[in-house]
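Troubleshooting: if your tokenizer reports a length mismatch, compare your output against this known-good record of 406 residues.
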Amino acid sequence: MGPLAGTRILDLTSVVMGPSATQMLGDMGADVIKVEPPDGDVVRQIGPQRNAGMGAYFLNANRNKRSICLNLKDPAGLDALLRLADTADILTYNIRPQAMTRLGLGYETLAARNPRLIYAGLFGFGQDGPYAARPAYDDLIQGASVMSALIAQAGDGTPRYVPSAVADRVVGLAAVGAICATLVNRNQTGLGQRVDIPMFETMVGFVLGDHLGGLTFDPPLGGGGYARQLSPERRPYRTRDGHICTVIYNDKQWANFLRAIGREDLPRDDPRFATYADRQSNVDFVYGELGRIFAERTTAEWMELLDRADVPAMPMHDFDSIFDDPQLKQTGFFELVEHPTEGRVRNMRLSASWSRTPAATRRLAPRRGQDGPAILREAGFADDEIAALAERRALTIPAEAAGSDT
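Known-good structure output:
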């Protein structure tokens, strides 16, 4: 049931960054216990929803998890979490480390109880810098990592954010890699450790990996920025009936393309098209000329021509066409499934695959606190202890989950 089967994760993360990481780990087979505050993860409220607290955004970031609602400000709720952490392999959190320490959940405290525990923090900034205690959100990190300035340079001069929680999701992916690497080390040494995954530093590396350019050298050999990616002409090309996405990159692809459209003479007539270096140096002009060429045929005509010429291309999808993509259909990326409370929903599977330990969707996103009693019983809590936690509101059991061991 996935390469991480048998691994237990205590997930204290909320919103997008942490939950996207733990969903991937859950898809890989880990038993993910989502620890929520009494009111639940705030993301439960985002997007269309059939039932309160089960919004679309939450459904798409929290499958393969079980939910327990604990009030960690209550000593009994905190004690319950500590007992759960005693048998966990990994604990993930995305509040500031200072707040974790104030709650009594600092690394030293948990490591003393469970030396094998991997203590993974996803937060705004590296803890050895002056921003250590600052809060962070995706928009802040996009702007601070130079991404918004690059969008302004490539566009109309107006800084903007990418219309996706790209920082949250990139850092979530980085966290999956860091956590899995730490798990390998723990299995070799028998000892866990603290691993920090900061948003700011991760995204600066992600963005400047493309755009550090001449600033890579000291002294600099020119400024930063990758000209091809910053060209205002770099965009899906308009065709007679829509848009197409293509990158005619190397000399062989250019030769194939020009032969297919009957323009083998172009590099001779215009040296700006002659070599890879020439095209890079004149990328705005070259991409502009391509824009005029692609406007002459339909998308289907271009897809057929480019496929024959072995030039990479894809149609530009929107929400009307993405579900009909033949690749996604054939690989079963989207599947319509029945959620126990939310009815029929569209699920997106993990894109990676394994030959011997395939990943699977074992459960869809949980109702708030629905698994609390069952999780506590697994940790050795007696029924009267669970009842006492619920009575003092250290444990929240929604009415629809009372008496259920889902």
